Amino acid sequence: MKRTVFFVVAACFGIRTAQAQLAEPTSTSREQQLVESVGLERLSMSTGLPPLTNLQNVTGLLQVGNGNTARIDQQTLSNNANQAYVAQIGEANVLRLTQLGGGNLLLVTQNGNGNQAGYTQGGQNNATNITQNGTQNKVQGVDGRANLLLEGDNNTMKITQNGNNNTVQGEVRENNRNYDIRQYGSDNTLTQIETTTQTPKGYTVEMRGQGINLTIEQSKVVPGVR
Predict the structure, then answer these.
(1) Total count of domains within the chain
(2) What is the DSSP letter of 146?
(3) Is the dihedral of CA 53, 55, 57, 58 positive or negative?
(4) Tens-digit pLDDT profile for residues 11-41
(5) How many CA atoms within 13 Å lie on the side-chain side of 126?
(6) H helices, E strands: number in the chain
(7) Cα 24 from Cα 18, distance rounded (Å)
(8) Is residue 116 part of a domain?
(9) What is the pTM of this model?
(10) Which residue, 81, 156, 173, 217, shows the most beta carbons closer than 10 Å to its own?
(11) 126 vs 157: CA distance, rounded Å
């Protein structure tokens, strides 16, 4: 049994697409009851979405069930912002997101086991917040990349994982970054590569539990990367 609620709004000087799909379940799980009690409309309200006229692209996505896959590609040619608000509840779900341009904002929550979040952000003044609750979850890159990629100036990244056997693999380029990576549980892994020589704006890593695997390489020279 599987129920999926999907809602996307993409605005380019107005609303371009609005879509909602609902499959009736044959039974109700605890996760579905949670979503039903919160409501899809509250997902957008709780994130404090600004007026659509001030944005280039806005995406809100809610998926409930197992084995779901979502891909979001956003790009701007001006200073208008891309914003994505994503919630996936279930197991073995996959999210792939690419944002290019200025002032990007990404908020992701995945509840369940074996979920994957992959993203690439390029540009300036970007902010990313990814939270995963469960075991064997992973944050990495898109399209087969081993590492997530954050490049550009004045970027902020926050990743939180609660559970065991979780993994974060990342590569960060350019300057004035602010990291906040937290893992709570056992046998978790963090691998972070920085490919610039300048000191980051801020760096916070907190890992609590047993069997911690931590690798941070700073000022690493990667061929083809300026």
Answers:
(1) 1
(2) S
(3) negative
(4) 332 223 223 332 333 334 544 444 444 444 4
(5) 34
(6) 2, 17
(7) 20
(8) yes
(9) 0.72
(10) 81
(11) 8
